[in-house]
Design goal:
The complex is a heterodimer. Chain A is mainly alpha-helical. Chain A contains five helices and no strands. Chain A is globular, with a radius of gyration of 18 Å. Chain B is mostly helical. Classes of the chains: A mainly alpha, B mainly alpha.
Chain lengths: 162, 257
């Protein structure tokens, strides 16, 4: 086989491996719209009891967000009890049964800003105050990683993992 | 005898803990974290796509400029055999006269300005190819970035940048590459973020990629505003990252995810 054929095969396998992509940057399709208003939240006893912006979550949408590489992408670091995921990350703890282990307010704090519990955590704060983000990409200025609705959807899904 | 035997088991147990602890802190090339088929691709001179850049760099290295037809090869030999491989493996270096960090690309660029008045900017494909060729001359040489004297203060600044959180994903380099090497992020193992294989062929982008560009790609992945390619910050990061690789062998062109 000559070298160019081998290189071609290498390129082909490279483009295939793109499908096994790692954590994609959180760029929501709504990024072209102005950022939605940021809702303040409050921690009491290591818990955020009130839903963000008073919204109600949808577990079905939450599952899609949690497994979507361009949105929540929880599977980049955690195991979830879902089929069709090629590979799960091993950085964070498994989320199987997480709804049984953590009350909903504890879960909300961990997703919104887990660094309020563990300052050295590698986990992104999915609803941190946009003013606290250092050097956000231009299209993400003033935004949170996920919207309040998306956070509540993911929480509703996690609550089903019992 | 039984007591002796038990004591020995305890001693061996402690030694085991020591060895495991040491292994975690061990310096490992990115080669150790890629899949076996990627390692095989890197090791095979016919399969390694990065060698295209080496070939392109060699062509530019021997290309004559001006009426005298002078090329890099006029001084350094047709295959760059007169280049000092240990010096190549010491880049980026600090120039105390200009008080600036000089990357290998910049060094090649300034050397090249003696034979042509058409300069190449950082990360220009031709300059990247030349860097890949030159670093490949030092394949197997041990990375030896100076860490003493005026560089010490710069490395502290570089380390501070390495430990700063960036972008929406809000992680520092330190989080992934110092706290979690060996863990999986989806289907890929996190490496120690070593620089000894760069410029490297990246399977993710399908391109030969310099350190400088890799840092930018990482910051983009963090959904962060990257540093300009000629900024002080990216030079400090490049210097710090390469100094972390001191002791590892140059693998350019490595194949990485």
């Amino acid at each position: 086989m000559n070298r160019s054929v081998i290189i071609f095969i290498a390129m082909l396998s490279a483009s295939l491996s793109l499908f096994a992509a790692v954590a994609n940057a959180a760029v929501d399709s709504s990024e072209t719209l102005p950022p939605p208003a940021y809702c303040q939240w409050e921690i009491k006893n290591f818990s955020i009891d009130d839903p963000l912006c008073g919204l109600t979550g949808d577990a079905k949408r939450g599952k899609e967000i949690a497994t979507d590489g361009s949105r929540g992408n929880c599977v980049a670091c955690h195991v979830l009890p879902v089929d069709g995921i090629e590979a799960f990350g091993t950085i964070g703890p498994s989320l199987i049964g997480v709804g049984k282990r953590l009350p909903v307010g504890f879960l909300r704090l961990r997703i919104v800003d887990t660094r309020r519990i563990n300052p050295m955590s590698i986990m992104p704060g999915f609803y941190r105050d946009p003013a606290l983000i250092h050097r956000p990409a231009k299209n993400m200025i003033g935004r949170t990683f996920l919207t309040a609705q998306q956070i509540e959807d993911v929480i509703a899904y996690m609550e089903t993992l019992k | 005898m039984k007591i002796m035997h038990n004591a020995l088991i305890i001693v061996y147990g402690f030694m085991g803990i020591f060895v495991v602890g040491y292994a975690n802190a061990e310096l490992l090339s990115g080669y150790e974290f890629v899949k076996p088929e990627t390692q095989a691709m890197q090791d095979d001179d016919f399969a390694n796509p990065g060698l295209y850049a080496v070939d392109a760099g060699e062509e530019l290295f021997t290309q004559g400029h001006g009426p005298a037809g002078k090329s890099c090869a006029s001084c350094h030999g047709d295959e760059g055999e007169k280049l000092d491989t240990r010096a190549i493996a010491s880049y980026p270096v600090y120039n105390s006269n200009t008080q600036k960090i000089i990357s290998l690309q910049q060094r090649i660029s300034s050397c090249r300005s003696q034979i042509t008045d058409k300069p190449l900017v950082v990360n220009h494909p031709d300059l990247l190819a030349l860097e890949t060729f030159v670093r490949n001359r030092a394949h197997g040489e041990v990375v030896n970035v100076a860490t003493d004297g005026p560089v010490a203060g710069l490395l502290e600044k570089g380390e501070a940048l390495y430990k700063t959180r960036y972008g929406m994903i809000d992680m520092s380099c330190h989080h992934c590459h110092s706290m979690y090497p060996g863990k999986m992020i989806r289907g890929q193992k996190i490496s120690q973020g070593q620089g000894n294989g760069f410029p490297a062929y990246r399977l993710d982008t399908g391109e030969i990629t310099g350190m400088n560009q890799r840092i930018t790609q990482c910051l983009n992945l963090m959904s962060a505003e990257p540093f300009p390619s000629d900024s002080e910050e990216i030079k400090l990061l490049e210097l710090y990252l390469m100094s972390r690789s001191n002791g590892l062998k140059i693998e350019t062109p490595a194949v990485r995810y």
